[in-house]
């Protein structure tokens, strides 16, 4: 089955989704946030996880898939407040278009709505899946807190960084697949393989994002190339460079750290990227991305479902790994 069948069902369901009407100042920011687009990867994974095991994927998994998407957008709304981000997907963020207090409250309602969208899950599965959703939600918050901690910590290890992106990004992709699989009738073993598939894809996806920030094409990447370097963000690339650098290279990196003015931005990106090139940071990152991707495919291969039903999920994974934006 083509991926467009699933994305079309999601688009239609999201367009029909109601959040509330009054007061308008509470609900309009939610509608605005949810209309900003995005790849819709997480709810798509929920539908694909369900269709591995049932033809009734729309009946059993569509509303829970929406729950995953509403929750994800809730996290983005609150992340934007914490990061003081002016834009999201090229549009003013909610806290800029309205104000931070409204953004916080609208985000809170989005979290409530996400739980409500799970209530139609069959009673036998509901307690377990609500516990897993709550656990995943807490882990995403843990990852966000670690990310904020790393902004002020002088030393962050590669292992700590990988654990942070696992929590902040990857666990929700893993849960999205696990949720769909359980709703479709998967065994606990198959659902776990799919959770681990999603988590590994999530790790590879974030590392790919780190790589594109430095080596992507500005015309297709959708945001400024080198932004992570300019802001001294502790990415896998920077941490790998700091670990592998000799004294001269460390001195170069240290010289540029903290210089965040617009006047020095281009020179800083060139200088730090040159150190990355000397240390082969790009192929090292590509190798780790491939390791996670191959581990993910091994988990998918272990799932007891027909190859034809796995094809859309495999196609989506390839799209995510080959993306340029």
* Main CATH class: Mainly Alpha
Give the class from helix and strand content and strand pairing. mainly alpha
Percentage of residues in strands: under 5%
Strand line-up of the largest beta sheet:
1-2
Averaging pLDDT over every residue, what do you get? Answer: 95
Rg (CA only)? 20 Å
Order of helices and strands: HHHHEEHHHHHHHHHHHH
What profile does the largest beta sheet have?
2 strands, antiparallel
SSE layout:
Layout: H1 3-16, H2 24-34, H3 41-51, H4 57-83, E1 87-88, E2 91-92, H5 94-97, H6 100-116, H7 126-152, H8 158-184, H9 188-215, H10 218-221, H11 227-230, H12 236-244, H13 247-256, H14 265-278, H15 281-302, H16 307-322
Antiparallel strand pairs: 1-2
Helix pairs in contact: 1-4, 2-6, 3-4, 3-8, 3-16, 4-6, 4-8, 7-8, 8-9, 9-15, 12-15, 13-14, 15-16
Précis, in short:
75% of the residues lie in helices and 1% in strands.
How would you characterize this protein structure?
The protein is mainly α and about 325 residues long. The chain has a single domain (about 5-320), classed as Farnesyl Diphosphate Synthase (Orthogonal Bundle), CATH 1.10.600. Helix content is about 75%, strand content about 0%. It is built from 16 helices and 2 strands. A two-stranded antiparallel ribbon has the order 1-2. Helix 2 (about 25-35) packs across helix 6, helix 3 runs antiparallel to helix 16 (about 305-320) and helix 13 runs antiparallel to helix 14. The protein is globular. The mean pLDDT is about 95.
């Amino acid at each position: 089955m083509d991926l467009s069948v699933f994305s079309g069902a999601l688009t239609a369901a999201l367009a029909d989704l109601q959040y509330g009407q009054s007061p308008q100042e509470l609900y309009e920011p939610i509608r605005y946030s949810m209309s900003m687009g995005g790849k819709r990867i997480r709810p798509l994974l929920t539908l694909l996880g369900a269709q591995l095991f049932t033809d009734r994927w729309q009946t059993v998994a569509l509303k829970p898939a929406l729950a995953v998407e509403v929750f994800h957008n809730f996290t983005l709304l609150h992340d934007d407040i914490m990061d003081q981000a002016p834009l999201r997907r090229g549009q003013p963020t909610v806290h800029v278009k309205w104000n931070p207090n409204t953004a916080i409250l609208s985000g809170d309602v989005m979290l409530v709505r996400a739980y409500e969208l799970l209530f139609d899950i069959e009673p036998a599965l509901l307690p377990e899946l609500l516990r897993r959703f709550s656990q995943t939600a807490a882990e995403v918050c843990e990852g966000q807190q670690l990310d904020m901690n790393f902004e002020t910590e002088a030393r962050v290890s590669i292992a700590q960084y990988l654990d942070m992106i696992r929590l902040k990004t990857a666990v929700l992709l893993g849960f999205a697949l696990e949720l769909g699989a359980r709703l479709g009738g998967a065994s606990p073993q198959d659902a776990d393989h799919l959770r681990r598939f999603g988590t590994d894809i999530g790790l590879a996806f974030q590392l790919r994002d780190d790589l594109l920030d430095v080596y992507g094409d500005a015309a297709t990447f959708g945001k400024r190339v080198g932004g992570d370097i300019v802001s001294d963000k502790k990415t896998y690339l920077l941490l790998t460079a700091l670990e592998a650098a000799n004294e001269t290279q460390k001195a170069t990196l240290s010289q540029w750290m903290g210089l965040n003015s617009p006047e020095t931005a281009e020179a800083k990106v060139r200088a730090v990227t040159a150190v990355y090139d000397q240390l082969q940071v790009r192929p090292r990152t590509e190798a780790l991305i491939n390791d996670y991707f191959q581990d993910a495919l091994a988990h998918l291969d272990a799932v007891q479902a027909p190859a034809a039903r796995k094809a859309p999920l495999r196609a989506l994974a390839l799209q995510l790994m080959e993306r340029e934006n």
